[in-house]
Amino acid sequence: MDHTAPSSRPSAVIVMAEQSFREVFSETALARLSAVVELVGPLPITDLDSPASRDALRAARVMLTGWGAPRIDAAVLDAAPRLETVVHTAGTVKTFLDAEAFRRGIRVSTAAAANATPVAEFTLAAIVFGLKRASRFAHQLRTTRRHRSVDGMPQVGANGVTIGILGASRVGREVIRLVSRLDARILVCDPYLSAADAARLGVEAVPLDELCRRSDVLTLHAPSTPDTRHIIGAAELALLHDGAVVVNTARGALIDTEALTAELVRGRLDAYLDVTDPEPLPGGSPLYALPNVVLTPHIAGALGNEIHRLGDSAVREVEQYVGRGILAHELRADELAYTA
What proportions of the chain, in percent to the nearest 5, are helix, strand and coil? Predict the structure, then answer.
């Protein structure tokens, strides 16, 4: 496939839910996008089978996708014979984009790097609040209406602690950058992290068992795959010392919920969980009421004014692709097995 920049604006379609379109693209971003591509068809396309959508697909060389995009399978790709690149305005493409796109040589880019920023920021906040025992102290204040007491509290504070990071993903690496500001030792477990990369990141690479044994905080940043399902189970949780903090802003299925619940009910661990398995937890779960647990409804990723960052990132990708044939955040087929 020829990826040479065309002499005139290439045709482009936007395929996503109406709400996603309104949230992702600011007026400024849409103006920038319209300067480099000719937007065709419904704006956005939500139904790929309508006559207007089919006409647009036939002409499209660029496709921008987002949350709520319909399935892009072989039949859709057949209807878009000129398609060269798919630029996704969110993180994972696994939920809607068939691997056939890669087999046809269509280049794919995602805004996962842009979405990593708010997730990492949220994770840093959870780590600091977790080590400060904020949820326990808040519960104490609500129930006693008295001055704080550290009696019965696990170790309090982030000074000189060991932070264990499972997964040197985009988010994991951004978390490394942020927590490096703390007075903390950073351990990382990731089978794809080379010794050279670990040294460059200023972290110590360790196997999973060692990560769990040594960490004051265990924070999860691995993708959800068959190999990582329940990667943190009863055995791994048992290795964590009393008072350790578990942070999950990745995917709920990485942790065995039943095993974690047992540890949290005992009060042996603290947890900040933005994702759970199932999501949300059943109404009768004891985790909703525990003082050592903070549950949030999957808010770590881009939300509110953070969402424009995703649209801006996608527009920059299109600008670079049209101008120089470059995708700064290109996703390759061989990365699908170990990325979110």
Answer: 40, 15, 45
Mean pLDDT in residue range 144-169:
96
Q: Which two tokens stand for residue 96?
A: 């809607």
251 is catalytic: yes
Give the chain's length: 340
What distance in Å separates the CA atoms of residue 212 and residue 240, rounded to the nearest whole number?
Answer: 5
3-state secondary structure of 251: coil
Single out the catalytic residue among 9, 54, 104, 298: 298
For 82-112, the DSSP string reads T--EEEESSS--TTTB-THHHHTT-EEE--H
Residue 17 gets the label, from left (phi > 0), alpha (psi -120 to 50) or beta, of beta
Single out the catalytic residue among 22, 177, 258, 279. 279
pLDDT class for 338, splitting at 50, 70, 90? confident
Q: Residue 337 corresponds to which tokens in the numbers above?
A: 């097995």
Q: Which of 136, 251, 309, 329 is catalytic?
A: 251
Evaluate whether 72 touches 86 at the Cβ level (below 8 Å).
yes
Instruction: Give the whole-angstrom CA distance, residue 275 versus residue 288.
Output: 13
Active-site annotation holds for 213: no
Q: What is the rounded distance in angstroms from the CA atom of residue 54 to the CA atom of residue 52? A: 5
Give me the chain's average pLDDT, please. Answer: 96
Backbone angles phi, psi at 331, to 5 degrees: -105, 125
Confidence of residue 130 (pLDDT cuts 50, 70, 90): very high
Q: What is the pTM of this model?
A: 0.91
Whether 279 is a known active-site residue: answer yes
